[in-house]
Amino acid sequence: MNAKNRRRPVIAGVATSDYPYLPELSEHGVHGQVADRALADAGLGLAEVDGFATAGFFPMYAVGVAEYLGLRPTYLDETNTGGSSFEVLVEHAAYAVEAGAAEVVLVTYGSTQLSQMGRRLGTGGGGRGAGMPGPAVHDALWGNTLVGNYAMAARRHMFEFGTTPEQLAAVAVTMRDHAVHNPQAQYRDPITVEDVVGSRLVADPLHKLDCCVISDGGAACVVTTAERAADLPKEPVHILGGAHASTHHLNLSAMGELTTTAAALSGPAAFARAGITPADVDVAQLYDSFTITVVLTVEDLGFCAKGEGGAFVEDGGLGLGGRLPTNTDGGGLSSCHPGMRGMFLIVEAVRQLRGECGPTQVPGARVAVAHGTGGVLSTGATLVLGKEAP
Amino acid sequence: MSETTATPADAGGRPPKPRPAPALDPDTAAYYGAAREGRLLVQRCSACGAAQLYARDRCLRCRGEVDWVEASGRATVYSFTVIRQNYQRPFRDQLPYVVALVDLEEGPRVMTNIVGCDPDDVRIGMAVQARLEPVSDDAGIALFEPAS
């Protein structure tokens, strides 16, 4: 390896926690479980970790989790972009190891959302945001729910492009098809398009089965250099490129066109940094908070033209052997969604590139994309991973 | 959506909970204060003429200074949803109701509730008219209803 190649960023270890229901664990305990597992997977110990990253919902969250784990990191990151946070944290970790600012960065996610708050969490929309002065008051006055934001994007997509409820439903059906093979998945019984469009409307045009599940769980990865990984037990997965973007925060009214997301900014930038095109991608892990999220993402990342996402995802387009095998663990729609699912996307992408996915393995997968979406379609972060060095 | 700013007592017999009122700051007090008095305002840039909401310190397009001008209240539905599940008061007592993004004639897009019609009759592109209602002593909001 030449000097530059020695410091190329790789993922040397990954892990998921037990899921989807962990009443016996604290939130920090989930971090502990995935930290141990990811480091064991990497063949490393906590003493070798000099960098730590995680995202949570109050300031100095990463500092607190580092304390809980007994770490004294000299590289820290707790950038929070919602559901896309972990793609951003791993992108940053890649820069850090490449620049020599850290040698081994542990990135963990942990949540006990289901145990602590229950399934009612998913709606929100009581107007609590109106009570704190600042820009967030504006869209907090109308009883809009989290789902309602995505529903308005779906409605507009249908209006502009003729996308149908059945096409959206196809996303949920394919995710469930994959979850059937995941023994940990929260829901594993096969469903049909008719089941999805026949489930009750939560916020028109999105039905219950267009919405992700609410779970406990966590995941983690270990980012280090290619040189360090050469001595470690698992085949390293190369971080080929990453990029992220935001378009607005809590005010959907500030987004602009609801049919184009931050993925249209982050995707092309990440692909350019990785030196690939969408045609090079063998398997994708795309944030599926709602079915419409996936339709918008496949368009914005350039897997199909704007407006053609509905046709792209139907007829098994996201299934094994389809146009773009996606969310091979069952995704947030069926497997596990503890609130900020981005780390699960990265872990599944790594497992695909290692060839560890058993019945949902994409044969010969060499390039994988993990794309997180956060907030109310507010942020997007794209990470391109490869089996081979660039 | 109920036609009033308070909801009836819920099944538990608790008193009606008013709909949320915005906490105000120097950027937003004028907008919500005018709405309290029945006037819908937009910001207009004194340099480039661009109109904007929500209220900011400067023009989003050119960072010029902004003034307040009164809007016509005419708007078009850009997108909408019918909320059928919300556990939070007061909205849970009003299900189903319409949350929408509407484009004001002057340009800015705002979130609102469409009232005064059956939720199933709302359409993208539908012409709507502002209906200003007080929600606190110092703030009002702009609901929208079908244009007559």
Please tell me about this protein's structure.
The complex is a heterodimer of chains A (390) and B (148). Chain A is α/β, with parallel strands linked by helices. Chain A folds into two domains: 3-117 and 216-239, Peroxisomal Thiolase, Chain A, domain 1 (3-Layer(aba) Sandwich); 144-213 and 242-386, 3-Layer(aba) Sandwich (Peroxisomal Thiolase, Chain A, domain 1), CATH 3.40.47.10. In chain A, 35% of the residues lie in helices and 17% in strands. In chain A, the strands form two sheets. Chain A has a nine-stranded mixed beta sheet with strand order 3-2-4-7-1-8-11-10-9, with helices on both faces. A two-stranded antiparallel sheet of chain A has the order 5-6. In chain A, helix 7 packs across helix 11 (291-300) and helix 10 (263-274) crosses helix 11. The longest helix of chain A is centred in the N-terminal third of the chain and has 16 residues, at 27-42. Chain A is globular, with a radius of gyration of 19 Å. Chain B has one domain. Chain B contains one helix and eight strands; from the N terminus they run αββββββββ. Chain B has one helix at residues 29-36; strands at 41-45, 51-52, 66-70, 74-83, 97-104, 109-114, 127-134, 140-146. In chain B, the strands form two sheets. Chain B has a five-stranded antiparallel beta sheet. In chain B, strands 2-1-3 form a three-stranded antiparallel beta sheet, with helices on one face. In chain B, strand 7 and strand 8 form a beta hairpin. The two termini of chain B are 19 Å apart. The relative contact order of chain B is 0.22. The chains are: A alpha/beta (390), B mainly beta (148). The A-B interface holds A 120, 123-128, 130-135, 137-145, 147-148, 151-153, 155-156, 159, 200-206, 251-254, 258 and B 1, 19-25, 27-28, 53-54, 78-91, 94, 97, 99-101, 109-113, 124, 135, 141.
